[in-house]
Amino acid sequence: MSDFKLIAIRPLEGCERRFLKNLVSKEIYQFYNDYKFRLDDLENNIVEIENISTYPDNFFHVDRMSTENLEDISNPIKVNISAIVGKNGSGKSALSELFLYSLFLISDKLNFIDQNQFLNLDSLESLEIEEKKNYERDSKKISEGLKVELIYLLDETIHILELRNGNLFKIKSEFIGNNYYFKGNKKKVNTRDDLEPFFYSMLVNYSLYGFNTNEIGIWIKAFFHKNDGYQMPVVINPYREKGLIDVNKETYLTRSRLLANILSINDYDDINPKTSISKIQLFLGDNKNYKFLESGEVRFTSNYIQKFRENIIKPLYALMFSTEDYPIIKGGIMELAEIYLIQKIITIPTRYSIFSNYNRKIRKKESPDNFKIVQKNSKSYVQELHQDRSHITIKVRQTLNFLRKDIFNVSEGDSKTEFKPTDIIDSIKELRRNDWFTDTIDYIPPPFFVSRIQFEDGSYFNELSSGEKQKIYFLNSIIYHLKNIDSVHKNNYKNKKKGVVTYNSINLILDEIELYYHPNFQKDIIFDLLSFIEKAKYEFIDNINILFLTHSPFILSDIPHQNILKVKEGKSEPYLKHKKTFGANIYSLLDDSFFMDNTMGKFAEEKMKWALKILDPKAEKAISDIDRERLEQTIDMVGEPMIREQLEYLYREKFGQDEVGFLTNRIKQLEKQIKNSKN
């Protein structure tokens, strides 16, 4: 049975300090402790891994809901979840960065990285020249100084991927009984095929201080770009530019993705636990003027639009809707949609290598009519666009469907509309009865529209708290990107022909994802994520490994102790069997020393020390009336009954007051406070 786990990472001897930070070379950092490693005495190589399963192998698995295209999919999506825990500075982030360095070297050596996506290689500007030099320097240092092993289970085999001196080597296990044996069949990885099978990693980190290119290096900039059609096996969310997250841009993108999910995934209208979605308002965004360039010139002249329409748009439309004629474009919203469509079709070959043969952009700098229309080339490009069913051409399909039939009833006057999600979903189902081969997502509003969600209680999405929005953004971003990765499989013939990599195993690294979350939201993270994965109807994704880097005991209480790596001062400490985490009391988890030395706030702790110092039998008995009153007030404020009762006992022992006298005195103090409040 196919499964996927990122079992461990091991920095090897000689790995440079800049990559280790406070980690220890030759230490095996295990995320799943049901695996026992045996090393040879001579070279410290892994020769055997024993699997002693102590919890159900389908513990986190998600039922794969049937889709309209596939009547019955009985095999579940196999999900495994682990966590790294430890105090700040313990080594959690160092482990995630070591993993990212490894993925960079893999991507660099196997030519996944297209520097044109994030570096201006032709620029003569001094800053951009410096950026290119820094990237080359970073790449060289990583190649020469990184020595590490990634150990993962995939397709019933444990793979050890060794990165050393800029080279990649892979060792596959032999499985006998419960044991995986490694008999030295190390093979050099020279091509992407040599790497197979492998997995796609998505790292999510919303920290303001994470992954700043000014600090970690320009190399990591390669991981913020998804315009390669999900080929490079890693991406970091959200996008950062020199460490800065553009919140407004992220908000716009997430709302667009949210709308796509609401209209294309069944039962996705419960994003707000307090109330369901009532209606969605749709309008043109203020910044969506596709008619003009930044210089003020028209993007496309009327003659160019006509030529593009005849050579590319109409033939593509005829392939998609063979019994219908292309609509007459009279201006207004239809004209804008057509201009957007032309711009999108021109842009695709410049971003995605699978279409690079059709890149006929005349000038790098934006200028009018900046795409050469070659009739012979256009015909084959149209065929390729029509055959592509992936996320790359989703916006093309959405815009063509909008031009074909405006199911949203957008007003030509103000380009606005509003609708109930159920009505649109019904309209989409009606259209798909004839076009059964299309996907629901092909019919959602094109990206030049902005949506506004209203709930049943009359409130709007933008009125949600920052924590509520963060939860929705986080979940929707993951679900959206997984749907895109899933969609790449739909071009099976073209993928094989053009060497396109597809992934059916996904590795999610969720780095302190509990930021902004109320404890109730933290408590629900794993349940909600698994529920949304189930609703999303992935057809080709088979395995998902989820690794949390967390400070939250609420997340930890949903994960078995066998799957938790405790990091302390750079060293690994597997969670002890007697300290079970799954379903554990939150306060018991908090009381563990890796979270806090005690569960009391530091300020409160100092106040308790002050009270105990006064109550010490050896201390002077005489104190001022003011200090005595403050002491009594402090004792009365203590929320933990056991601590408060002990302090009250010490108070009576110290000052010889019986319990009735103590309480009588407190009543007088409280009556005094009430009187002062009234005045």
Describe the protein's architecture and organization:
The structure is a single chain. Residues 67-72 have low confidence and may be disordered. The strands form four sheets. A seven-stranded mixed sheet has the order 13-12-17-18-5-19-20, sandwiched between helices. A six-stranded antiparallel sheet has the order 2-1-6-7-8-11. It has helices spanning 17-20, 92-109, 126-145, 192-195, 213-216, 247-264, 302-320, 332-351, 375-387, 394-404, 421-434, 466-487, 492-498, 519-535, 553-556, 586-590, 602-615, 625-637, 641-655, 659-678; strands at 4-11, 29-30, 35-39, 46-51, 78-85, 148-154, 157-164, 167-172, 174-176, 179-181, 187-188, 200-205, 234-237, 277-284, 416-419, 449-455, 505-511, 543-550, 564-568, 571-574. It is globular and about 100 Å long. The N and C termini lie far apart (75 Å). The longest helix has 22 residues, at 466-487. With 679 residues, it is of the alpha+beta class. The protein folds into three domains: 4-257 and 467-590, no CATH class; 273-463, no CATH class; 602-678, no CATH class. The protein is 39% helix and 16% strand.
Largest beta sheet, briefly?
7 strands, mixed
Distance between the termini: 75 Å
Structural class label? alpha+beta
Strand line-up of the largest beta sheet: 13-12-17-18-5-19-20
Average predicted confidence as pLDDT: 85
Helical residues, percent: 25-40%
Q: Note poorly predicted spans.
A: 67-72
How many beta-strand elements? Answer: 20
Overall radius of gyration? 30 Å
Strand content: 15-25%
Provide the number of structural domains. Answer: 3
Number of helices: 20
Shape: globular
